[in-house]
Design a protein that fits this description.
single chain; 190 residues; alpha/beta; Pyruvate-ferredoxin Oxidoreductase, domain 3; 6-stranded mixed sheet; 8 helices; 40% helix
């Protein structure tokens, strides 16, 4: 089976680390993987998007419109922006916690998270919503939302790999002092 995954969020949410954990998990299993990141103005709260393609027969790291079987969104508005990449029947795993852009507060249109989440509910058949504030409170850190979303995708059956694959990638890619928290985050929704 092949996984074509789009990960999206804003700078500082761990989108790139999540894509690297997915890529590492595939490589540790000996499965071909291609990945690409678009970071842009991420350091200023701008959009971050990663494409991860796992499996045989992948010639390009970029996923075309309607080609992703999984969209992992660390921020609701970013999920809507990237929804064109989701294939029919694909799964969206999304955090319900908005990161409100400065322009929305100062001059732009109001950021309406309820309307955004309603839009997703209306258009996505397989939608997994992660309560980011609850997860942060119960885990004691908001910095592991990326791994919570990975776990949500795994436990929803949206990815062909097993949780143990990501556990191994966490142990290999992250410093040991972060293992315990990230492993708890991975299993938070199990």
């Amino acid at each position: 089976m092949r996984d074509d995954i789009i990960l999206c969020g804003v700078g500082g949410q761990g989108t790139v680390l999540a894509s690297r954990l997915l890529s590492s998990a595939a490589m540790l299993r000996g499965v071909p993987v291609k990945a690409a990141e678009t970071i842009g103005m991420a350091q200023r709260g701008g959009s971050v998007t990663s494409h991860v393609r796992i499996g045989e027969g992948v010639s390009s790291p970029l996923i075309g419109r309607g080609g992703a079987n999984v969209l992992m969104a660390f921020e609701p508005a970013e999920a809507v922006r990237q929804l064109v990449y989701l294939k029919p029947g694909g799964t969206v795993v999304v955090s319900n916690r908005p990161i409100i852009p400065v322009s929305s507060v100062t001059i732009g249109p109001r950021y309406d998270v309820e309307a955004i989440m309603g839009y997703l509910h209306d258009r996505v058949n397989r939608l997994v919503v992660v309560d980011a504030n609850k997860a942060a409170h119960e885990l004691g850190s908001a910095r592991v939302l990326n791994v919570v979303l990975l776990g949500a995708a795994l436990h929803a059956g949206a990815l062909s790999m097993a949780p143990d694959d990501i556990r191994e990638a966490i142990r290999v890619r992250l410093p040991e002092r972060f293992h315990e928290l990230n492993l708890r985050a991975l299993d938070y929704l199990a």
